[in-house]
Amino acid sequence: LAKDRGKNNYQFYTNKLQELSLWKLEIENGLRKALENHQFELHFQPQFEMETGMIVGVEALVRWQHPDKGLVSPAEFISLAEETGLIVPLGYWVLKEACLQNKRWQNSGYNPMVISVNVSVRQLQNENFVEMVKDILCQTNLDPCYLELEITESMMLTQESSTSLLKQLNELGVSVAIDDFGTGYSSLCRLKQLPIDRIKIDKSFVDDIDHHPNQGAMVKTIIDMGHNLGFRVIAEGIETQAQADFLMKHECLHGQGYYFSKPLPAVQVEKLFN
Ligand code: C2E
Ligand code: MG
Ligand code: MG
Ligand code: MG
Q1: 256 alpha carbon – ligand 4 mean position (Å)
Q2: Which residues form the EAL domain (predicted)?
Q3: How many Å is the Cα radius of gyration of the chain?
Q4: Binding site membership of 237 for ligand 1 (Cβ less than 6 Å)
Q5: Is the overall model pTM greater than 0.80, yes or no?
Q6: Ligand 1 atom with minimal separation from the 74 CA
Q7: If you average pLDDT over every residue of the chain, what do you get?
Q8: Residue 141, Cβ neighbours under 10 Å: how many?
Q9: Cβ(191) to ligand 1 under 6 A?
């Protein structure tokens, strides 16, 4: 009977929902404990000047060293950390650890370079955000010129106050990059007015560069546009020589991707430093 089936469906969905929220609750508790028990760690993916193979920076990417599950990727927990607000303390830890590590490398005598740190909208919405960045730079004694914050286009759409925020960060001396560039909907007019230092061309554009002429033309347009707006340009998700060649040919000189190096723990990535 339809009525029974309706009831079964209802039951099916409530069970599924219960499972889902249980799972979420489990992760949420797990995340909270992970913070207390220091189960997060940073990996670092180098950014290259592609022509010379010189490393010009590193991006810090968080991982969760789970006691049972092993290394958990951020794709599995960042959005939940955002939903629950746990991204605020987690983001604080990430930023501080990244600055500390960069300072450690400088103290060991490596050529100073910029460390890029991903920042969520929830962190930016916190009215103390700029103060917090300042505080961490002060505590870690890292020169602000060696820190770059990666934000996404969506953050600038939603936030009118984002203009003032970016200006404050600019005055502080840290740089700002637009991550996953091209996947959002920011207007060029708006971008042009903001103190942004560089754009990171999203992997999805890089993927088909060498197979689809349209995609190639699109990437070429993004590179030119970025330069015309006064931004530096880096491409992410480069997996092949052909992709790197295409990008270099069209004046995108910096790149990041598995073709050059995967994200690595600190002790491994520093072996690649110049
Ligand atoms: P993202 O910031 O765009 O980082 C690039 C992601 O692409 C990283 O995944 C990186 O490992 C991966 N990647 C780099 N090169 C290649 C490549 O050649 N091929 C492929 N298939 N992938 C490549 P990851 O580390 O899993 O991070 C995923 C996303 O999670 C990041 O995307 C970022 O949005 C977020 N995330 C990571 N760490 C943090 C963090 O500390 N805070 C916040 N708020 N978000 C973070
Ligand atoms: Mg990023
Ligand atoms: Mg990205
Ligand atoms: Mg991203």
Answers
A1: 14
A2: 24-274
A3: 21
A4: yes
A5: yes
A6: 30
A7: 91
A8: 11
A9: no
Residue to probe by mutation, ligand 1, list 41, 62, 95, 118, most atoms within 8 Å of CB: 118
| Nearest-CA residue for atom 10 of ligand 1 | 263
Q: Largest Cα–Cα distance in the chain?
A: 76
Q: Considering only CA atoms, which of 230, 81, 95, 85 is closest in space to residue 149?
A: 95
Which of 142, 209, 207, 198 is CA-nearest to residue 172? Answer: 142
Q: Say how far apart CA 186 and CA 152 lie, in whole Å.
A: 10
Phi-psi region of 62 (alpha: psi -120 to 50; beta: other; left: phi over 0): beta
What is the predicted ipTM? Answer: 0.98
Provide the pLDDT for residue 7.
65
Where are the extended beta strands (E) located within the chain?
Answer: 40-49, 54-66, 70-72, 114-118, 147-152, 175-181, 198-201, 232-236, 254-256
